[in-house]
């Protein structure tokens, strides 16, 4: 895609004209798997005049584009061109005259049944088996498949929506629900959002109150279990407010997604989408909720202006998430979380990105690569490590947290680049600690490849226990482990996760036999009958593959139980590197690919090295 403006992944020209508000009128048609209706879009023109407007579209059929003039709709000429595979096309709307000031267009259109932002599930694919389910995932650039828009996070707009669907179903959006009657639900989002935060889900959904401003929504069979698992939500919200300032989105609800949801969570405003793989039964995986709540400031209020600066969203969010953990569980757990993140980062750099080292930079170049292809744990972990480095260098949380609040307040409702963060940091600290500012090697932190430039001096107490256990399993034969006193020591779920990560990272494990894997599974209660913890099961399956144990039923049972990319992609990648596993992985993938969301099927095909 030609780089037209500040956003390499969008055709739109936000320097000339910007969307301010959108009124959506959508009908959700499960029989055709489409959304049809209209988008009435208010623009503000930022230059002397314009003669055309460029919007992003993907796989959308436009019936008409009209300009609103004194209550009348006047049809305009439009053209769709410049298709870039997996990115989208350019909708050029020709205005009748040179136009300045403001402008409202109404576009009548329908989506395609293969819109990349949407997944449509048949009743059989749901828990309840009676009703269909559909949901969206717009980040990074899939909003353009459900709405002609400036699909760039540099543009923020408010929106109202009228949603029409079968009255038996519940429609939810990333906005405040105004009420529902006979299958018509109205929504209002008064806080300006980037297009990637537009979200919709329609299904047989029930809700349960879990806090003064929170409900959990889910299919009936899991709503009670989910309410129990996520009952710390208000505690997380209050702690996040203590760190970041007041919560400005009024409501914070959670929607438990079907297992095919490709991510852990998605920070859709007022309604986080969350994978059911975080329901372990003992709250051991609910840090994802703390993460999504943190996005209510970092990402949703202060937003990266394009996805090359994604670390401004995710690095800050992990940084705040870790602060929440520190406040609620103690600083040693904040540091353990960071150390565990670094293990994941090491794995990402060594495996996922081994042939694309340029994507291990904190700020990446997306001129020739789509955001989905560039996605990894790098912006999360390298970004949060950078912020922790700055915090430690500048004198600790007492000094850095007031800056963080001030930064969030300064840039709320805006979209920014790394240079804006850097300038604000300098303005804030230049008279206070100029000598510390000089010590920061910005060039290396932002643009060098590989692991973070500096690893902060973390408290390693919790982590050391995991390492001790991992070293034992890696260096000793099974017979010696059986009699070791170390294995009598109990580990928490997150320590077990880290123990497995450490083992997966070992270049060599002595005596990696079925007997050893079984002993490990039994010792730490990791079998599928005993634990529901998906992070443990995921890593154990990777260890089974590393041991070259031909337990394909168990491996594919896990790989087909959910299509969260964090889990399925490394498993398929590992299998692709094993001559016995690869053909079976391809066969299994071909069987289940239609149940995956498009973005997941695309990524796994790439991991397996086969045609998409
Ligand atoms: C440098 C990378 C550039 C752009 C990437 C931006 C978006 C990529 C796209 O694939 C969407 C990502 C959405 C992520 C949503 C939630 C994550 O925080 C989940 C993390 C993984 C997990 O826990 O499952
Ligand atoms: Zn995030």
TrEMBL record:
The cofactor remark states: Binds 1 zinc ion per subunit.
Kindly state which reaction or reactions the protein catalyses.
leukotriene A4 + H2O = leukotriene B4
Q: What is its main location?
A: membrane
This protein's superkingdom?
Answer: Eukaryota
The biological processes this protein is annotated with in GO are: leukotriene biosynthetic process; peptide catabolic process; proteolysis
EC number(s) per entry: 3.3.2.6
Q: Name one Pfam family in it.
A: Peptidase_M1_N
* Active site positions, chain numbering: 292 (proton acceptor), 380 (proton donor)
Membrane-topology descriptor: Lipid-anchor; GPI-anchor
Q: Identify which cofactors the protein needs according to its UniProt entry.
A: Zn(2+)
Instruction: Kindly list the positions annotated as binding a peptide.
Output: 137-139, 262-267, 564-566
Protein name, entry field: Leukotriene A(4) hydrolase
Source organism of this protein record? Polypedilum vanderplanki
């Amino acid at each position: 895609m030609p780089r037209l403006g500040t956003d390499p992944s969008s055709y739109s020209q936000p320097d000339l004209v910007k969307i301010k508000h959108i009124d959506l009128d959508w009908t959700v048609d499960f029989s055709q798997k489409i959304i049809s209706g209209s988008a009435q879009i208010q623009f503000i023109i930022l230059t002397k005049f314009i003669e055309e407007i460029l919007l992003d579209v993907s796989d959308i059929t436009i019936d008409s584009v009209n300009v609103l003039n004194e209550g009348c709709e006047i049809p305009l000429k439009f053209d769709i061109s410049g298709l870039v595979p997996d990115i989208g096309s350019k909708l050029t709307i020709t205005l009748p005259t040179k136009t300045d000031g403001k402008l409202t267009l109404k576009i009548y259109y329908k989506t395609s049944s293969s819109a990349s932002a949407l997944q449509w599930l048949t009743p059989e694919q749901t828990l309840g088996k009676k009703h269909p389910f559909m949901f969206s995932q717009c980040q990074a650039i899939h909003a353009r498949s459900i709405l002609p828009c400036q699909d760039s996070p540099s543009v923020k707009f408010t929106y109202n929506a009228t949603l029409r669907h079968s009255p038996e179903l519940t429609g939810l959006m990333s906005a405040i629900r105004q009420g529902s009657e006979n299958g018509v639900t109205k929504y209002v989002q008064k806080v300006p959002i980037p297009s990637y935060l537009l979200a919709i889900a329609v299904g047989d959904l029930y809700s349960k109150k879990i806090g003064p401003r929170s409900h959990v929504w889910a299919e009936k069979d899991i709503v009670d279990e989910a309410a129990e698992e996520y009952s710390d939500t208000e505690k997380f919200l209050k702690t996040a407010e203590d760190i970041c300032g007041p919560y400005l989105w009024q409501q914070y609800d959670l929607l438990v997604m079907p297992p095919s949801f490709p991510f852990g969570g998605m920070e859709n405003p007022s309604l986080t989408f969350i994978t059911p793989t975080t329901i372990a039964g003992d709250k051991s995986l609910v840090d994802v909720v703390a993460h999504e709540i943190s996005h209510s400031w970092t990402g949703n209020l202060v937003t990266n202006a394009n996805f090359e600066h994604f670390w401004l969203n995710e690095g800050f969010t992990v940084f705040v998430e870790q602060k929440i953990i520190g406040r609620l569980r103690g600083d040693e757990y904040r540091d353990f979380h960071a150390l565990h993140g670094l293990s994941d980062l090491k794995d990402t750099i060594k495996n996922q990105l081994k042939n694309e080292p340029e994507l291990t930079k904190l700020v990446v170049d997306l001129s020739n690569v789509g955001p989905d292809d560039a996605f990894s744990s790098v912006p999360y972990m390298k970004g949060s490590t950078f912020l922790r480095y700055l915090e430690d260098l500048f004198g600790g949380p007492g000094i850095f947290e007031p800056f963080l609040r001030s930064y969030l307040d300064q840039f709320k409702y805006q979209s920014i680049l790394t240079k804006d963060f850097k300038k604000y940091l300098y303005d804030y600290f230049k008279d206070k600690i100029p000598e510390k500012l000089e010590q920061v090697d910005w060039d290396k932190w932002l643009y060098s490849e590989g692991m973070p430039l500096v690893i902060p001096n973390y408290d390693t107490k919790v982590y050391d226990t995991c390492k001790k256990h991992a070293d034992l399993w890696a260096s000793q034969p099974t017979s010696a482990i059986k009699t070791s006193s170390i294995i009598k020591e109990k580990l928490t779920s997150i320590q077990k996760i880290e123990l497995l990560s450490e083992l997966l990272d070992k270049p060599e494990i002595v005596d990696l036999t079925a007997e050893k894997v079984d002993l490990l599974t039994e010792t730490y209660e990791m079998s599928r009958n005993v634990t529901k913890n998906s992070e443990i099961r995921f890593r154990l399956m990777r260890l089974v593959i590393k041991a070259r144990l031909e337990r394909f039923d168990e491996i594919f049972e896990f790989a087909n139980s959910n299509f969260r990319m964090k889990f399925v992609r490394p498993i398929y990648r590992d299998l692709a590197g094993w001559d016995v596993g690869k053909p079976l992985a391809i066969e299994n993938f071909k069987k289940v690919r239609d149940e995956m969301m498009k973005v997941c099927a695309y990524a796994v095909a790439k991991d397996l090295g086969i045609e998409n």
